[in-house]
C-alpha cells in the first residue's frame, strides 16, 4: 500500500481570514467609529456657553469676541465687496455700509452672544445682544442691513418692516447675499 497524505480540511469562516485581513478590518472599523465620533462632536454638540465682550466686526454678519469667530445666525448681510443700487439706480457699497452700521451699533459696548451651533468654517452661529437686550441679529434685519435667512424665517417681521419703510438695502435694489456669493466665488479662502 502507498501511504496517503492526510487530507487537509477546508476551513470556512473567520479562521480562513489572514491576519493581514483581520488587521485591515479592525483599522477600517476604528476609522469609521472615529469619524462618527468626530461628526457627533462637530455638528451635534450642545451649544457653548455665552461669549461676552467687546466685538471686532469683520462684516455685516460676522464678528470676533475674545478670539471666538461668530456668525450672526438666521441673517445674511451683503458681502464687503457687494454693490447695490439706490433708488435712482446708482451703485453704492452696500456691503461696506452694512459692516459700518454693525460696527457703529456695537462700538464701545459689550455684546453677549449665545452660540447655537458651528458652521462649516468653524465659526459659532449665535444670536448676540447688547446690554439693553437689543438682539443685534434682528436689529440688522430691521434696519435693512441684512436679510433673514434659514428655514425658520426668524426675523421675517423685521424684514417686512424694513422693506415697507425702504430702509437700508430696501431703499433700492440688490442681489440677495447668497446669490451674490454664488455669482462671485471667493479665491482667497476667507471665512467672513
Rg value: 27 Å
Which structural class is indicated by helix and strand composition?
A: alpha+beta
| Order of secondary-structure elements | HEEEEEEHEEHEHH
As a percent range, the share of helical residues equals 25-40%
Tell how many strands the DSSP assignment holds: 9
Instruction: Quote the average pLDDT.
Output: 87
Strand content: 15-25%
Largest sheet: 5 strands, mixed, barrel
Unreliable spans are: none
Distance between the termini: 88 Å
Number of helices: 5
Shape: elongated
Structural features:
alpha+beta, two-stranded antiparallel ribbon, elongated
Please tell me about this protein's structure:
It contains five helices and nine strands; from the N terminus they run H-E-E-E-E-E-E-H-E-E-H-E-H-H. The chain is elongated, with a radius of gyration of 27 Å. The strands form three sheets. It has a five-stranded mixed barrel. A two-stranded antiparallel sheet has the order 4-9. A hairpin with a 5-residue loop joins strand 5 and strand 6. The mean pLDDT is 87. With 192 residues, it is an alpha+beta fold.
What is this structure's SSE topology?
Layout: H1 19-43, E1 51-59, E2 62-65, E3 68-72, E4 75-76, E5 84-85, E6 91-92, H2 94-106, E7 110-118, E8 124-129, H3 136-142, E9 147-148, H4 156-165, H5 177-183
Parallel strand pairs: 3-8
Antiparallel strand pairs: 1-2, 1-7, 2-3, 4-9, 5-6, 7-8
Helix pairs in contact: 3-4
Amino acid at each position: 500500500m502507498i501511504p496517503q497524505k492526510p487530507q487537509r480540511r477546508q476551513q470556512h469562516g473567520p479562521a480562513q481570514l489572514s491576519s493581514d485581513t483581520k488587521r485591515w478590518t479592525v483599522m477600517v472599523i476604528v476609522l469609521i467609529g472615529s469619524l462618527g465620533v468626530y461628526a457627533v462632536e462637530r455638528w451635534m454638540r450642545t451649544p457653548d456657553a455665552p461669549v461676552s465682550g467687546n466685538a471686532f466686526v469683520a462684516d455685516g454678519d460676522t464678528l470676533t469676541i475674545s478670539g471666538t469667530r461668530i456668525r450672526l445666525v438666521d441673517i445674511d448681510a451683503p458681502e464687503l465687496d457687494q454693490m447695490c443700487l439706490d433708488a435712482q439706480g446708482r451703485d453704492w457699497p452696500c456691503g461696506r455700509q452694512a459692516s459700518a452700521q454693525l460696527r457703529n451699533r456695537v462700538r464701545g459696548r459689550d455684546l453677549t452672544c449665545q452660540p447655537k451651533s458651528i458652521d462649516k468654517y468653524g465659526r459659532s452661529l449665535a444670536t448676540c445682544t447688547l446690554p439693553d437686550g437689543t438682539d443685534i441679529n434682528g436689529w440688522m434685519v430691521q434696519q435693512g442691513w441684512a436679510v433673514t435667512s434659514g428655514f425658520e424665517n426668524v426675523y421675517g417681521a423685521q424684514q417686512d418692516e424694513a422693506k415697507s419703510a425702504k430702509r437700508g438695502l430696501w431703499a433700492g435694489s440688490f442681489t440677495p447675499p447668497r446669490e451674490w456669493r454664488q455669482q462671485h466665488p471667493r479665491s482667497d479662502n476667507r471665512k467672513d
